[in-house]
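Q: I have three molecules that I believe assemble together. Could you output structure tokens for the complex as a whole instead of separate predictions?
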Amino acid sequence: METTNKIRVLIAKPGLDGHDKGAKIVALALRDAGMEVIYSGLHQTLDQIMQTATEESVDIIGLSIMSGAHLPISEKLIGMMKEQGLDEIRLTVGGVIPHQDIPKLKKMGVAEVFPGGTSFEDIITGMNNLFE
Amino acid sequence: MGVAKYIKDERGAIKEVTYQSGITVKPVYGPEDLKKAGFGYDKDLGSPGEYPFTRSLHPQSYRSRAWTTRQYTGFGTPEETNERFKLMIANGQNGLNVAFDLPTQMGYDSDHPLAEGEVGRVGMAIDSLKDFETAFAGIPLDRIGSGLTINAVATIMMAMYQAMAENFGYSKEQISTTPQNDILKEMIGRGAWIFPVEHGVRLVGDSIEYAVKELPKSNPVSICGYHIRESGATPAQEIAYAFEIAKAYIDNVVQRGIKPEEFVGRFSFNFNVYGNLWEQIAKFRAARKLWAKMLKNEYGVTEKKKLFLRGLFGGGGSGLTKEQPENNIMRGAYYALGATLSGAQTIALCSFDEAYTIPTPRSALLSLRTLEMLMDEVGLRDTVDPLAGSYFIETITLEMEDKILEEMKEVEDLGGMVKCISNGLIQRKVSSQAYEYEKGLQSGEYRKVGITPGKTDKKTETTDVELHEYNEAWAEKSKANLKELRLTRNDRDVTESLKALEKAARTNKNVMPYLVKCCHAYATVGEMAGVFRETFGEWNEPEFY
Amino acid sequence: MIRLIEDCDPSAFEMLKLLYPHSGNAFIIGITGSAGVGKSTLIDALILEFRKLDIKVAVIAVDPTSPITGGAILGDRLRMQRHATDEKVFIRSMASRGQKGGLSRATKDAAIVLDVMGYEIIIIETVGAGQGEFDIATLAHSTGIVNIPGTGDGIQAVKAGILETGDVFIVNKSDKPDADELVHHLTMMINMRKPSKTNWANTNLAKTNWTAKVLKTIARDGTGVKELADTFLSHFVFMKKNGLIDLKRNELEHLYFHSLLKDLTLEKLLLFMKGSEDCIKIEEKIQSREMDPLSAAELMVNKMTVFKSNE
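A: Yes, here they are, computed for all three components at once.
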């Protein structure tokens, strides 16, 4: 049988920050690129994000962080993912990210970083490339 | 959502212009356009200071008094904030504007797990009355009013402000607080909501009712079209949705037997100012007129002052870019020009570096100087509403009115703002518009200098983002304070006052007096908000697509 | 595992064979209704009620995929996200992907997995009912159809033949003005219903036919949801007591078997056609109108049968 593989992405908003415009328009762009997108909603704890990602068997968790707390949050989440053996899920981070933090995030294990201003095309290509 | 849509021919001549609000613009306007639109001076404009106030709220406008400017402050600990306050008052400011950190905005104490990494970061961390007492110590609360940028727990903050003032020997009649207190816009565009829609509106109603009866100098609501526009609404929708939100609050209070005349005069607005210059001017002039008309015709308000659309026109955050940030200095000047040509009462500008960092004192100064120049050098105080009578401006002002009314009708036909937000219709619209606009920016359909390559640059340069430094010490201090508070306060008073609060919340009583009691007992923000969470539950947001 | 099913990975088929014997314990509830009636909010409230009884609940939320881009935003779970850290609640969103066998089969397969995982109640949420390839009646033991007042839903229900399959009719947003009228309308139509015409129900059981219930709810604040949960549970008890669960199970298995037959046969046939030169020629003949599609299809099937018997 032909496989009907699609990329499943969880767009997640961790923490208390309420700026979701970026997350929402990226979700729409990914949908238009043929992906299946699950949007987590605001004010998510990392536990909620983990359980959602597992239940929905996503390929990518895309964190949207506008608060500046991307380093501690990513570190924590990667730790949780390792603990639960979720090696197959890739983590990407988008939002308000200074360029100097990108290598730090990648070293932690973040697969791709999409700072605010990255074009939709680059985000879609970036995510697709994770599965070549 | 600011730049107009331009269709050009091969030689670069503009063939079509369409504003985001949907207005198409002709190459030339003349007297026949005014005739066609049925323009009449008295009915459409009125003299400055006269109904319907299209030209200006005051007869002499800037000739008698220039616009006022604002500056926000408050971050970190209450101690540091107190120092900042004193400094600003010494520098001549006669009003304070207070920002709160995210845990406080979301009704959590500084030691709550979700507060991690956020304590004191974007504003002051407030856990209890004690923190307010520290922050406002020595401030003459009878002379200085405070704007509080707080929404979901505005009732709690208002009560706490009163309790604090009372502890310092002031009466509630003397103090002036202006909480932002616009929960519906949070649900559309800012995200700091907690409770489901109807309960959020009920709390707003409680605070307005309480202000009418007990806090004569306070302005209980500041409706923010600003954030709605930031999340993707067109200028016409910005006004339309703000007015529909106002209606939702007014209707809630009217149900309690209070006449609109008693409180609408204390509403203020917060509107955005970026984008096409003419569209902004038309928007503000139309808004002033429509607000006055709406209050008069639909709510029977007659007293002149109460028909004023009071507000802050400013910001412009979405218009700024990270790329080539000096461009934002010029943008700020153009936005300020738009605001002043529109007769704004109060103006605040985003600093040029705000797109990528916390505004430095220097960049904040540049914003102030921009406005000073308009005031003193460039001539914006010379005369009232200088563009009045322009064939173009008056025609598009009338068209803007129609657009705004159309948008309002759509919301009303669908059951009103509360319904539309509960169902997610507004969010859906605004998100898809934001998406389409962003696509247009990325494809070059909309030209933004610095982002779209153009005449003066072929490649774009980006400035890197700098962030607030998070100070762990703030969190430690707040947590330590909480610990001490819990040991020193009277547990029974706390428990009893919280119980009474819960009962009031459940039985539809006005929660304000109960909150004041809780504050006096040194109940924490988390505890009081917790009672509401238990009683009202938390909102499950609807889909946005 | 569910991911493998969605992706139509061949190993999924084998795994399902192993899992199947262990399934058959869960009570499957279908919730369907037009967009905007509040299904997700209702399910969120239902989960709460079932959890109060310490029941493990799984939800499969089915969303349409854009026919143009092939992508989807699966957002039903947004309304149920407060259960995201409850280990005894499992929420899975699925989109139609044009799989062979359609979404119906993928959902059925996913339900088998969740059943074996121990979820006692599985709620399947879909838009629309009894139309097109997604027939909730082929998947669920008990079907709830959600309507809201003021939209002429009642008439639509009749048109779509939905009334024949619904076990519980829910009038949500019942604080709206025409709620009682809709309740009345639905009740009337249910009373006019003919008894179930499944092959498996014989006339002896006519007396024990479940009478569809009509309930009012306000999902937003939970009004009527406890009663709804109780109604579903009592339907389950009713079916168990009267042996209807087994009957229904047989019916569902029968339908599943036939859909599998269809899928597997088609798969084999298409494979066969790919490898045969005659088949490619036949497509061309259809294109040039030399042969009509009906004769062509007949020819193909006969060819395959011959091919099979020659193997």
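A: One point stands out. Chain C touches chain B through twelve residues (CB under 8 Å).
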